[in-house]
Amino acid sequence: MIDKLKQFFATASAESSPSQHQLAVAATALMVQVARADRQQDDRELQAMLDSAIKAHEVSPKEAQDILDDALAQADDATSLYQFTGLINAQLDQVAKQALLQSIWLVAFADGHIDHYEEHLIRRMADLLHLNHREYIQAKHNAEQAHAARG
């Protein structure tokens, strides 16, 4: 009986763990929220999201577009950031979450201007991802350097 219960819970938890696609969509949905924070979603921001998906999730451009399309749809229906950050917190370690925050900053930098709404939203995301102030600043600094290097 106990073995059957253990097997049931093991199966249930395996089924409830998100797929890589779901995790990629959650991460990209956070980027979408930042791109929309200044009410001026830009093609450069969309391209930064695609580039991030290709690099971070090691997917093809087609798969990255599918991730972005799903993220755009989920961002439209989102009632809070927690539905995305909760999933990410459950699956990623601190280093991976800091890399994600750096990618989010790259989206914000993509249009050449950091709006105060974008900066505030990214600060909230960092808090929800359990990243401290040093990690937040380091992600911003790394993204700023990467953006400057791209020209």
Helix content: over 70%
Secondary structural class: mainly alpha
- Ends distance: 64 Å
Total helical segments: 8
The low-pLDDT segments are: 11-15
Overall number of structural domains: 1
CATH class annotation: Mainly Alpha
Oligomerization: single chain
Secondary-structure element order, N to C? HHHHHHHH
Report on the biggest sheet.
none
Instruction: Give the overall shape.
Output: globular
Task: Describe this protein's structure.
This protein has helices at 2-16, 20-37, 43-57, 61-77, 82-91, 94-109, 116-128, 133-150. It has 151 residues and is mostly helical. It has a single domain, classed as TerB-like, CATH 1.10.3680.10. Helix 2 packs across helix 4 (61-77), helix 3 (43-57) packs across helix 4 and helix 3 packs antiparallel against helix 6 (94-109). The protein starts with a helix and ends with a helix.
Summarize this, please?
The protein is mostly helical and 151 residues long. The chain contains 8 helices and no strands.
